[in-house]
Amino acid sequence: MAINGIVRPSSDVQKKQVLQPFNLTATGYNLNYLPEYIALRHGFFREQGLDVTVNIPTPWDGVLDALADGTAVMALGGIWVPSMYRDRVQQYTVFSQIANRCPLAVLKRGSSEGFKLTDMAKSTVLMKSGGGASVGLFFKMLLRENGIDARAVDYVQDLDGIMLGNLFQGGMGDYFITDNLSALAMVSRNPNVSIAMEMVTQGDIPWSVYYRETSTITPEILDVQKRFCIGLAKGIDWVLQHDAESFRDELAELFPTVPVDVAISVTNDFRRNKMWTSTSVDRQGFERWQQGLADAGLLKEPFAYETIVDNAPAAAAQLAAKAARQS
């Protein structure tokens, strides 16, 4: 098994299986995808007869090309893309989720003691955008939900995240929004910066989902998706059952550029705050995000859950897992 050329171990028994190729294309490599990486490393997909490989294209929207030319079985990314494209460019169906919360954090200079979201009105906020529009979409939705006019904030969001992070530390802007892992790593290096808010605490939302072109779905594809969901669910359960300190070495291997204590801290924070719950897309979280996308102008109006999501593979996987536990 490999992620962009990184070989993952498997048991001798698993190697003897006749495995079905399952090529996944993803918009990035992120800690909020951790249960998938655990499922790969621990052979949970191979148990379902799937030889899962992962490609991360540059730029990220190459995932849509991979679906179109058939080099990928499915894509992993934000649900805002299938929503925005629907009835305009291409129909995509979402069948599973991995991240149930937003993995971003708000950084500020100085102490974050007493911070309130309303403090951000009339400020300048730096936001990375290299991986798509999700960062700005979620933050502006959060402002609207809290009665803050998103137009009362100035944004710098068309630059690379590393560049923006350096500029923020050098004095540009009032706040910087980036992924939680990068935020905590910055704080560990820079005592003049603090985390004002971890957005994982800000309610359910289908942040990262799996999808493919609707017209290509067949009974055989649905069966493969079900088996993928079984393996992914085992990965989620495994992560939830193990304190991150107990798999320190794996985290160090998976995220070698991040201090391992930072990776452990973020993982346990995500475990506590429902980043990973189920392979099924939560209906209330979906409706919340749809309203946010509509308010942002990406949709004419929110889509109904069943228009975008087919929960059948995830539901079938849950039934299969329950039957296996009872047998």
TrEMBL record:
<comment type="subunit">
    <text>Homodimer.</text>
</comment>
<keyword id="KW-0784">Thiamine biosynthesis</keyword>
<keyword id="KW-0479">Metal-binding</keyword>
<keyword id="KW-0808">Transferase</keyword>
<dbReference type="GO" id="GO:0046872">
    <property type="term" value="F:metal ion binding"/>
</dbReference>
<comment type="similarity">
    <text>Belongs to the NMT1/THI5 family.</text>
</comment>
<comment type="function">
    <text>Responsible for the formation of the pyrimidine heterocycle in the thiamine biosynthesis pathway. Catalyzes the formation of hydroxymethylpyrimidine phosphate (HMP-P) from histidine and pyridoxal phosphate (PLP). The protein uses PLP and the active site histidine to form HMP-P, generating an inactive enzyme. The enzyme can only undergo a single turnover, which suggests it is a suicide enzyme.</text>
</comment>
<dbReference type="GO" id="GO:0009229">
    <property type="term" value="P:thiamine diphosphate biosynthetic process"/>
</dbReference>
<protein>
    <recommendedName>
        <fullName>4-amino-5-hydroxymethyl-2-methylpyrimidine phosphate synthase</fullName>
    </recommendedName>
</protein>
<keyword id="KW-0663">Pyridoxal phosphate</keyword>
<dbReference type="InterPro" id="IPR015168">
    <property type="entry name" value="SsuA/THI5"/>
</dbReference>
<feature type="domain" description="SsuA/THI5-like">
    <location>
        <begin position="30"/>
        <end position="186"/>
    </location>
</feature>
<dbReference type="Pfam" id="PF09084">
    <property type="entry name" value="NMT1"/>
</dbReference>
<comment type="pathway">
    <text>Cofactor biosynthesis; thiamine diphosphate biosynthesis.</text>
</comment>
<dbReference type="GO" id="GO:0016740">
    <property type="term" value="F:transferase activity"/>
</dbReference>
<dbReference type="GO" id="GO:0009228">
    <property type="term" value="P:thiamine biosynthetic process"/>
</dbReference>
<keyword id="KW-0408">Iron</keyword>
<dbReference type="InterPro" id="IPR027939">
    <property type="entry name" value="NMT1/THI5"/>
</dbReference>
